[in-house]
TrEMBL record, chains A, B:
GO terms for molecular function: FAD binding; oxidoreductase activity. Its cofactor is FAD. It holds the Pfam family FAD-oxidase_C. One of its GO terms (biological process) is respiratory electron transport chain. PANTHER family: D-2-HYDROXYGLUTARATE DEHYDROGENASE, MITOCHONDRIAL. It comes from Pseudomonas matsuisoli. This is Oxidoreductase. It comes from the Bacteria. Belongs to the FAD-binding oxidoreductase/transferase type 4 family.
Amino acid sequence: MTDLHETLGALRIALGDDAVLTGDTINPRHHSDWTYHQPACPAALLLPRDTAGVAAALRICNERGQSVVPQGGMTGLAGGSTPRATDIALSLQRLTGIEDIDPAAMTLTVRAGTTLENIQLAAADAGLLFPLDLGARGSCQIGGNIATNAGGNAVIRYGMTRDLVLGLEVVLADGRVLNLLNKMQKNNTGYDLKQCFIGSEGTLGVITRAVLKLVPPPGPVATMLCALPDYASAVALLRRIQRELGTPQAYEVMWQDFYRTGVSWLEKPIAPLDDSHPLFVLCDLDAPAQALEAVMEQAFEAGEALDAVQASSHAQARALWKIREATGEFPTRLKPLNFDVSVPIADIGTCVERCRARIDARWPGNRSVYFGHIGDSNLHLSVDLNSVPDADPHEIEETVFAVVGELSGSVSAEHGIGVLKKPYLHHSVTADALDAMAALKAAFDPKGILNPGKVLG
Amino acid sequence: MTDLHETLGALRIALGDDAVLTGDTINPRHHSDWTYHQPACPAALLLPRDTAGVAAALRICNERGQSVVPQGGMTGLAGGSTPRATDIALSLQRLTGIEDIDPAAMTLTVRAGTTLENIQLAAADAGLLFPLDLGARGSCQIGGNIATNAGGNAVIRYGMTRDLVLGLEVVLADGRVLNLLNKMQKNNTGYDLKQCFIGSEGTLGVITRAVLKLVPPPGPVATMLCALPDYASAVALLRRIQRELGTPQAYEVMWQDFYRTGVSWLEKPIAPLDDSHPLFVLCDLDAPAQALEAVMEQAFEAGEALDAVQASSHAQARALWKIREATGEFPTRLKPLNFDVSVPIADIGTCVERCRARIDARWPGNRSVYFGHIGDSNLHLSVDLNSVPDADPHEIEETVFAVVGELSGSVSAEHGIGVLKKPYLHHSVTADALDAMAALKAAFDPKGILNPGKVLG
């Protein structure tokens, strides 16, 4: 690496003084993502205005072997965009704006720094839906959503971010710009390079522009909460609904511990369904209320459902969702150790039982809650560290991830690897696959300047 | 490269004599795919029994720099699996069988040499649908479908092969086996390596096993043929149907020239709708006939549709499809030069007009037909070389691909590149992107033994 001073001088000439910040002029939000794990003020913060600026910045840094941490909305949950003091941070926040909405192709072309919420609003203005949705929608940027292959609330119906991306513009580590701005559903002209960059957490290239798929908005949505006898019934009911009425917008499973917690935190803590049932499902579906009732009749007869309540107004639907949205209060009411894992759908019930048994045996008196998007094979669990103040969080993590590994699951379903999940990657990825990932990294970033130490290495 | 004789000896020891064929013992179907372009008897044909056999074969060939051409059902349309006389062909045909159907996860795990049709049947036996479907279903193998990212008839509703693959087992050029047999919809544990191999036409690795997504089968399907005033109406009607009733199973647009040809080849050449209309759509949709009629009323009022007929029986539906299936008779009734291109949906009408104007101007009296899966942005056109016997096919190809390039389209929508489309790749892929593809190739196959000369180079 050459002299930082010289590097910053070259960057100032290329980007302009106001696009190269250092020290106290850097807003602290660039020091860490939402994990606040090992925050650091980077050696500099670059604020290029356009793709050419990103390309110039990377060319200068690559020539000098200077490490670069790409940054979006800083809402990540794995430390992927947190810089070290020796890194230069490159924020996409000035590359904002929607360039094109094509109603015939149902596509939206957008610059990487645009927030997810602004994209959702622009799609809605055009009478369409951009179905990616997650809690951080107002802050997260589409470049970061793509770089982390974000999941969120609507995956069961519309897929992950990867499934919603048709084309990309990407700047490689050496400053070359790859124009992969495809608008077509079908395009078999060589390797589909964009796939390499989606979910690569800024380690293979910097995304500057994207072509996104839009979909027709759903019709009126029915919301239902129901109580189930066991996990197998949650799968059977989901498949019944899909077969008869189509894939729901949301299908959120809550184990009893979660349900009781969610109800107890309501303003009026009255359970809409008796809390003695072992399992609850909250379902959003764009089908006529009558059709849903008919399917639930079948489910009651088959013993898949024990009780159910359907919202008859938007306010009632919001009230049912309030129970599930208890997660939003975890940071203030608990000291949560959160997990975001996936296992094959049939094994999620086993995963819960096995995790609970091992955690209860090792840490008696722990308070833990289990919930998940089971249609996506995604299970979340949170252990309240306040309930077991002497527990070593890493030991809890090893306990859970060991179960996930036994069930051929994934230690990160939707949050990515960053730095926080790196120690556990071996539970889900073989040594040969890790080697192949390293080969891919070396092919696109031979000097290793892009987000070093994240995901791999 | 070392001595072929020595290489074959090593392969015979590793795989057994009956798995290493040479000369006349090689069935000629291994000499070429369905293009019959430059067929050749390979130096040997390998028939490994399992993944370990594939791994051993590749290790031996890689150590000796021996080129290997992976082969599936040999139904490709771009010369991708056609060997040269100096290549060793590696057929996956003995790796057959479905290993697992998981009804909870709705996944099917299968060996690469299994035919698409056998997978469809196994899924149906389990009450589910594997929605990939194409004319070669009885011969093509799933490994080849994945290696070419096959498209087919149901892409508008269910996506390309890429969208239906959850996990893969892949043997790298040096014989290492990558276990990427994921069953989960959500899995963000590092780079999604399987994406690199899907659509890479056997140049980056050999697919030996796959985990596929199944879906609930659709309900009863309504079939409708309608006549439209122009291309813009075809897009508007599709979006109307999607908004009101969901995405159709098929939405096939036929320009007048195609419709007239299809009707003229019927046993009783009577047009179900007057053939003076400029455009026709054949639509399959799993919605009640009544609901479809109501939407068509709106379409008539909006001027998007001019006339329509709905099949009232399975036989009537088959009769309507018979017109579209004229393509099956192209090889015997015409000397067709077939194109499989894609352009952004709004521009398909322009693409047709521009191609037709330039072809008519340069080759007066040509017989050409235009049709497409417009919801997938896919346009097919066929020029009957019998109608212009003096035309140079390459000049026609350059003419069409130039239009495609002008409209930011793709010279191969679903058939891949192989050797036949390689000269035209520059119309759709930038030089920097081709360089990035070459870097990917070098990363996974540094000696360049896998399917050399295909796609790249």
